[in-house]
Amino acid sequence: MFQAAFLLPVMTSMMNAGLTSSSFSETQTPQAMCIAPTRELANQIYLEARKFAHGTMLRPVVCYGGVSVSHQLRQLQSGCNLLVGTPGRLTDFIEKGKVSLKGLQFLILDEADRMLDMGFEPAIRRIVESMGMPDKSERQTLMFSATFPEEIQRLAGDFLNDYLFLTVGRVGGTTSDIEQTVIEVTDNEKRDRLTQILGDAGTDRTLVFVESKRSADFLAIFLSGEGFPTTSIHGDRLQQEREEALDDFRKGRCPVLIATNVAARGLDIDDVKHVINFDLPSDID
């Protein structure tokens, strides 16, 4: 689990320094905050943090859109040392005075390039620069990105203080453990070729990326009709439906998942044997 790379050291530092949050406070002052681009990734980070915090007094809380605000506020007001969330819901809670950033010691930006691609830069800059967060020289900031374009370099310069740049593997490259194949077909042949690949794959867990939400639903219905248990995930599905789709995929009830780029980064799903770009990506990253 990649998230352990930042959760374990941050949570250990918080425990060693002493936890400061109180369930009796109307406004929570988390010591650490992690911003993620999607609800699924935010929830995954939260679940890992909760697992690592088991048996301690450290309390992680998650907040993201698409679900009940009142439920998340109740969780928040029960105490929050580590807050995980998406930019929109975090901004909402800070503006309503439910969260104060004045005591923040650790800021984590996960999948930073993905957040920029999704247009979140203004929201992130507002959270970091205009909502009472300590200066970058008074907090520790960790930023994770699969690519390192100029926009990310600029963001790093603005948010990180005298930072250390670490790379794993070759920036922009794929791991040598992955075998990549290009199959040239016409648009009319794509569905038949996909069913052939899935037939050869058997019950192997297979993730299929498409460009549009409409295509995700149509392709999932088509494959289900062809006898392949299939589910789909995209931004127009209700949050509960998205979580159920991921759970069905993880547990093998639906070994085929059709997804838009909402699932393109950060999600940790064991034993995915095949990843298929049914539609060519519009961006090389």
TrEMBL record:
GO terms for cellular component: nucleus; P granule. InterPro entries: DEAD/DEAH_box_helicase_dom, Helicase_ATP-bd, Helicase_C-like, P-loop_NTPase, RNA-helicase_DEAD-box_CS. It comes from the Eukaryota. Keywords: ATP-binding, Helicase, Hydrolase, Nucleotide-binding, Signal. One of its GO terms (molecular function) is mRNA binding. Residues 193-285 form the Helicase C-terminal domain. Residues 1-166 form the Helicase ATP-binding domain. It is an enzyme of class 3 (hydrolase). One of its GO terms (biological process) is cell differentiation. It holds the Pfam family Helicase_C. Its EC number is 3.6.4.13. Transmembrane segments: none annotated. Coiled coil: none annotated. Residues 1-22 form the signal peptide. This is RNA helicase. It comes from Nematostella vectensis (Starlet sea anemone). The lineage of its organism: Eukaryota, Metazoa, Cnidaria, Anthozoa, Hexacorallia.
